[in-house]
Design brief:
- The complex is a heterodimer of chains A (257) and B (510).
- Chain A is 71% helix and 0% strand.
- Chain A has 257 residues and is mostly helical.
- Chain A has one domain: Up-down Bundle (Fumarate Reductase Cytochrome B subunit).
- Chain B contains 23 helices and 7 strands.
- Chain B is globular, with a radius of gyration of 23 Å.
- Classes of the chains: A mainly alpha (257), B mainly alpha (510).
- The complex binds iron/sulfur cluster (2 copies).
- One iron/sulfur cluster (SF4) binds next to helix 5, helix 9 and helix 10 of chain B.
């Protein structure tokens, strides 16, 4: 069992990183030929960084458009971040320079209770999906399943924190073993196995699903472009090639009239 | 008036419940083969259209980062679902921005993503069938590319980009829209959207000059093709003969006259509009725009000023430098191009213009932000200048001005309902229904403040409102040009009115 999980986690990690890397590479390489920032847009690069920060950290546009979606999804994403920090204690060994930060009481207890917030956020999003007719109309099976998957992760995680504790010392040995390529046994707990398997699944589907919104936002031309079209010529390589022949349909006409 | 009902105003602006398929029959006329050819598209549906369409989609995905990122990134959060005026007016779920995107996204997923290839049901991926193609034709011509949805999407997903891509795919398989493609053809053969030849244009301008002289007693000119002029004015051809556009043109002429500049129109670039954008075709957009550069070079002007038009100002402000730049032969001390509102406001700020605001006292004004100006361009040097400058101009020439509901103005403005290549009689139903949110907001200020007129700076908005206002039981001449207000209040040096005003001022001093 330990071996199976070790392999699964290795594969999932590889798929996550390679998959996202390839996708990001694709976004990077695809040119944005025209200036299409949603105005009013910042007129400096610093301004764009600030706009992006507001989108990524505060979900500014969502706040403007749908307050309940904003509440639930912000709760969910914030808890996700806190839970992530809490989980770092499994990966980082006590002699690491980050250990004093990770082991801080605040981070650990925030991370612990974040699980509840996460559940509320996810249930809120699920409820919207089921009960608001417009959101129900646009939902595919994968949209529900993804919420259920993350609910499973949160639910099993919370249960292990508050109800049926696992042997976290052994778990840490297992995870550090993975990091150091030195296999250690995984504590046998059904909750833990479901938790880990779901996380692995989530990592695997990340690069082939809508979870790509995470890297995607940084490449969104309506949000990441500077409003300076009049001042600076913006030209994509494929568009530059067309310049040689531009206006051939109208040139003769000029002579004629 | 027509075989559909004008929607009722909503009492509390509540979001409508879905009614599937209410607009599935809406589709514009298809372009005839003769109009497809000159634009570089096949005349009719090609035999292997599926293959051609998918290839084109792949081509566009590699050319437009926005398209690629937007098709991947939507999380179906639903935040955009109630933001489209066409959805509000029709209740059709395929008119929700994400519903519209999904028409293309489901096919993208089927042919370009792992999940869609192997688990189509799971992720809502669909084969490209004839029904899907028909749905594209129908619903991508129910999007005015107004970008309101992109303001509210957490990832800035811009349905306009998706609509443009879809229309380009449709053109590539041979199904073009008659209205847009015929007009682009006219630009290539005649020089403007209306097909107004040079001689007719010259006659129109001469008639107008006479009219202005009768009114003011001054020889105010509308010069055409003057080599060596300082300023080239590029304006939508509707300004030459449609109401209320033409009053705006008279306004520009008065401003130029009062400023004492040497300006000209061009018969070669007698059109600011550029429907190449609506059909998503970079090449056609570039060719249409190129006339402006050719005219500017040919006439040897130093500056370009742009008339009142929304999508055209988007292309001029955001795209010209890319498409037909660099503008190294123009005077770099002025913005290239400069909007007529920027131009006029600059004169006002420098006290170069004098107004008798009471000339507009019979009007109680409000202002409609045109979607392309508001969400795709700027005026002046600060973000949001596109909202402030036209308002400043109006307030400088009118005494009575009220804002509409802030949720319906500035970057949240609702489209007039006729943008994006929908301004054609064969799409009357969607145009009337899509105007609902704007009509509601307008009706509110009419009732609360007695607003009599709404000003706009877009040729499409002006034509659309003239047409749909009567459906909502408001007079068609409620809609006016901003420069009509300017022209009416401007005190022209040496004119009859100016002399009277001078006398009146002197006698009151005594
Ligand atoms: S707001 Fe954006 S992410 Fe949400 S459903 Fe609409 S397009 Fe998709
Ligand atoms: S761009 Fe405008 S018309 Fe098109 S879907 Fe978005 S809101 Fe609707």
């Amino acid at each position: 069992m330990s071996v199976a999980f070790a392999i699964l986690l290795y594969i999932a990690t590889a798929i996550l990183f390679v998959g996202v890397f390839l996708r990001v590479l694709k976004y990077w390489r695809t040119p944005a030929p025209l200036k299409i920032p949603t105005m009013p847009a910042p007129v400096t690069q610093m301004g764009v960084v600030f706009r992006m920060w507001r989108e990524v950290v505060l979900f500014e546009s969502l706040f403007k458009s749908s307050i309940w979606t904003w509440v639930f999804s912000w709760m969910f994403h914030l808890s996700l971040l806190l839970a992530f920090f809490r989980h770092l204690r499994y990966i980082i060994s006590p002699d690491n320079i980050f250990w004093p930060i990770i082991s801080l009481e605040v981070i650990q207890s925030f991370g612990k209770y974040a699980g509840y917030f996460m559940l509320i956020g996810l249930l809120g999003l699920l409820a919207r999906r089921i009960f608001v007719d417009r959101v129900r109309y646009i939902s595919n099976p994968s949209d529900y399943l993804m919420l259920l998957l993350i609910l499973t992760i949160a639910g099993t995680g919370l249960s292990m924190s508050f109800i049926a504790h696992t042997d976290i010392v052994a778990l840490k040995m297992f995870v550090l073993g993975l990091v150091r390529f030195d296999m250690q046994p995984l504590p046998s707990s059904l909750l833990l196995q479901v938790h880990l398997a779901s996380v692995a699944l989530l990592m695997i589907i990340f690069p082939i699903s809508k979870l790509l919104h995470a890297p995607g936002i940084f490449f969104s031309p309506t949000r990441n472009q500077v409003d300076n079209a009049r001042e600076k010529r913006h030209l994509a390589p494929w568009a530059a090639k067309l310049d040689a022949n531009r206006g051939h349909k109208t040139k003769d006409q000029l002579v004629k009239d | 008036m027509a075989d559909f009902d004008t929607p009722e105003y909503r009492k509390y602006r509540d979001i409508p419940k879905l009614e599937e398929g209410t607009m599935s029959d809406s589709a514009p006329f298809i372009a005839k083969p003769v109009f497809q050819g000159p634009l570089g598209f096949p005349g009719e549906l090609v035999e292997n259209w599926q293959e051609v369409a998918i290839d084109k989609m792949g081509d566009l995905l590699g050319k437009y980062r926005g398209l690629q990122v937007y098709l991947d990134s939507c999380v179906k959060c639903g935040a955009c679902t109630d933001k489209c005026h066409y959805f509000i007016g029709t209740k059709d779920p395929k008119n929700m921005p994400v519903g519209r995107q999904d028409l293309l996204r489901s096919v993208y997923r089927r042919y370009f993503t792992f999940a869609g290839k192997y688990f189509p049901k799971l992720v809502g991926a669909k084969d490209l069938t004839k029904e899907v193609l028909d749905d594209w034709y129908s619903y991508f011509h129910q999007c005015s590319q107004c970008r309101r949805c992109s303001v509210y999407c957490p990832y800035g997903i811009d349905t306009a980009e998706i609509s443009m891509a879809a229309r380009e795919i449709l053109d590539t398989v041979g199904i073009g829209q008659k209205y847009c493609n015929e007009i682009i053809g006219k630009v290539y053969t005649i020089g403007n959207n209306l097909g107004l030849p040079k001689r007719a244009l010259r006659d129109t301008l001469l008639d107008l000059e006479e009219e202005i002289e009768e009114e003011t007693g001054l020889p105010i000119k509308l010069p055409l093709d003057v080599k060596g002029a300082d300023i080239l004015l590029v304006t939508p051809s509707a300004d030459f003969f449609a109401e209320p556009h033409i009053d705006g043109l008279i306004g520009y002429a008065k401003v130029f006259h009062e400023a004492g500049v040497n300006w000209t129109l061009s018969s070669h670039a007698s059109e600011a509009g550029n429907f190449g954008m609506f059909i998503g075709s970079y090449e056609n957009m570039q060719d249409v725009a190129m006339r402006v550069r050719q005219a500017a070079e040919d006439l040897g002007v130093k500056r370009i000023v742009h008339g009142e038009c929304g999508h055209a100002w988007r292309i001029a402000y955001s795209f010209w430098n890319t498409l037909i730049g660099p503008w190294d032969f123009l005077d770099q001390n002025y913005p290239i191009p400069q909007h007529i509102c920027e131009y006029t406001w600059d004169l006002i700020e420098n006290n170069k213009l004098n107004f008798d605001k009471s000339e507009n006292d019979h009007r109680v004004m409000t202002f409609h932000d045109s979607c392309n100006v508001a969400r795709a361009t700027r005026m002046g040097d600060k973000p949001g200048g596109q909202f402030e400058i036209p308002r400043n101009v109006i307030k400088a020439v009118c005494n009575h001005y009220y804002e509409m509901d802030p949720e319906t103005t500035k970057e949240g403005t609702y489209c007039c309902g006729g943008g994006g290549g929908l301004l054609t009689d064969d799409l009357m139903e969607i145009r009337v229904k899509g105007a609902l949110p704007r009509m509601e907001a307008l009706n509110e200020v009419v009732e609360d403040h007695g607003v009599t007129n709404m000003a706009a700076i877009c040729a499409i908005c002006k034509s659309q409102f003239s047409k749909v206002l009567p459906y909502y039981k408001m007079p068609m001449d409620m809609i006016v040009s901003v420069h009509q207000l300017v022209g009416d209040a401007l005190i022209l040096t040496g004119s009859k009115e100016a002399l009277e005003a001078l006398e009146a001022a002197e006698s009151s001093e005594e």
